[in-house]
Model the fold of this input.
Amino acid sequence: MPWMQPAPKNFRYFPTPGSEEEPATLTSYPDSWWSEEFWSALRDAAKYRQQIEKFKIAPWDDAQTSAELAELLKKQQSAELVVRRPEILEEAEGPPSYYSRMMFLDSRRPTTHALVFGCIAWAVPFIMYFKHEFKRPRPTQLEPRLRPVVDVPQHPAYPSGHSTQSHLVALLMRAVSGRADVESALWSAADRIAENREYAGLHYPSDSACGVELAKLIAPIFIQENQPMITSARKAEWS
Done:
């Protein structure tokens, strides 16, 4: 399942493709570069309009962008990229196999499986809302010496979707498992997943940090909406 799988409904609240003809600039990711599937996910955010409008997401610090780009170049020139490359490639296709293997997300824990993969898809409209709000250019728009390890997604940089979704999984699994050690392990994995996107040349460190903050904001919503299922999973699969 792709990380950025769009939600199934379309609430038609947000813009439609081609509604804004913007050039690609050093200060903005143009609407015309969005793919239709992500426009659809953006419109789905209307379901949560009241909650989203209460969120306080601060923009990145423009004064730090040059330093962030220098850090990305340094990461790409390091031996660590060779170590991380297989992870980057796997995580570009979907959630890491580590999730299923560590948490037994198969016939042994079917409800937990549904919750984990469900929250990953559920988070996409929230992520797309703020990506469209900020329209941050991708690092390669500003620094052509970066060499993306995988294709650059067809939506803006801020916040990082991978960071948001993987940290959301960690927060969810504290509620499901009732175990701080499970949350801690998944939080560390989420930090690495987010950093991998930086090594890949796709995200600034501040994108990753914003993803953490967004995950903290949306986790209570998902947990509240799915509390009966979470309670069932905890009793049947984690007791």
Q: What stands out?
A: Residues 67-237 form a domain with the Vanadium-containing Chloroperoxidase; domain 1 fold (CATH 1.20.144.10). The radius of gyration is 18 Å. The mean pLDDT is 91.
